[in-house]
Write a structure and sequence with these properties.
mainly alpha, 15 helices, about 70% helix
Length: about 325
């Protein structure tokens, strides 16, 4: 044992020396090009994916592009098929805000209706989502299913009964005649999104806050609600867009130009004569209504993606 152990240690040290020497030689003789991996060649499949994305992108944006181009044409050139307006004109935008269409008031009405609907839907949706995601009670899944089912009814199916009901209440040509029906579609959307998001938040945080002295309400307000901010923000944007674009209920409940929303105002644009359609003005008004939503989505797209994908992976 006393003879073989030094030999074995010496042999092992020689082997290690050779190994380290070999690695050092390889490192010294290796070039940067040998160390970096070879670039992958693009195949026809990767190019086909990019081509498909370009086609989808062009298909989705082509109508919006044509609306912008048409809004920048003169009335005499509205039926031209050129890709760019020639000559460039702001005539249609001037006519939209000349006072005869009351489009500025219509934009304000849309902001009031969509903003109020969004705030009320978020307040009700947050509390309902908290109860469904955090509390244990019977028929919880059934209640959530009924809430979602109410949003499946098309708007036209509830217009006639609501029109009769609001006529009896004297609510025709009022903001609440548009806000209340909008809530019937906005609240289920808010409850569903927020319930899915809150289910992913850990219970331990609330329990730790309550152990530290917080009440149930304080734990909800100071711990859970700030963590749910991405989901609340995403739900607010989706609810606002849905309420801003609503048309059939606003058209049925409102016939006063002072109360009508922007979408209804655009549909009631008239030309110089009874049988003339003001396509240029309608295109310009469509751009004015759409651009704020596009800008809002582009600015807050990171928040929207965070809210939609929260809890998707562990």
């Amino acid at each position: 044992m006393t003879i073989t152990e030094p030999n074995s240690l010496g042999t092992d040290s020689k082997r290690e020396g050779k190994q380290h020497g070999g690695k050092g030689a390889r490192k010294a003789g290796a070039s940067p090009s040998d160390a970096s991996p070879a670039p992958k060649k693009r195949t026809w499949r990767s190019y086909s994916v990019y081509a498909g994305l370009v086609l989808i992108f062009a298909y989705c944006l082509a109508p919006f592009y044509w609306m912008i181009v048409s809004s920048l044409r003169r009335t005499a050139d509205i039926f031209d098929n050129t890709l760019l307006p020639a000559p460039f004109s702001l005539e249609n935008y001037v006519k939209v805000f000349d006072g005869s269409t009351m489009f500025g008031q219509a934009l304000l009405n849309s902001l009031i209706v969509a903003g109020t609907t969004t705030v009320l839907a978020l307040v009700m949706g947050v509390f309902a989502a908290y109860a469904i995601s955090r509390l244990n009670f019977r028929f919880k899944s059934v209640i959530l299913g009924v809430i979602i089912a109410t949003s499946m009814f098309p708007g036209i199916s509830v217009v006639v009964p609501l029109l009769r009901f609001f006529t009896d209440l004297g609510w025709i040509n009022t903001y609440q005649a548009m806000i209340i029906p909008n809530l019937s579609f906005a609240i289920p959307l808010a409850v569903w999104n927020l319930t899915t998001f809150m289910k992913q938040l850990p219970f331990d945080l609330e329990e730790a806050a309550m152990i530290d002295g917080c009440s149930k309400w304080q734990a909800f307000r100071k711990v859970l609600l700030p963590l749910a901010a991405p989901g609340v923000f995403t739900t607010a944007i989706l609810t606002f867009i849905h309420s801003w674009n609503e048309f059939i209920i606003a058209l049925s409940m409102i016939n006063d130009p002072q109360i009508q929303t922007a979408t209804v105002a655009i549909s009631k644009f008239t030309g110089a004569t009874e049988f003339q359609a003001p396509f240029g003005e309608q295109m310009a008004a469509g751009v004015i209504v759409t651009v704020p939503l596009v800008i809002m989505v582009l600015i807050f797209q990171r928040r929207i993606v965070e809210g939609l994908t929260a809890g998707a992976g562990k």
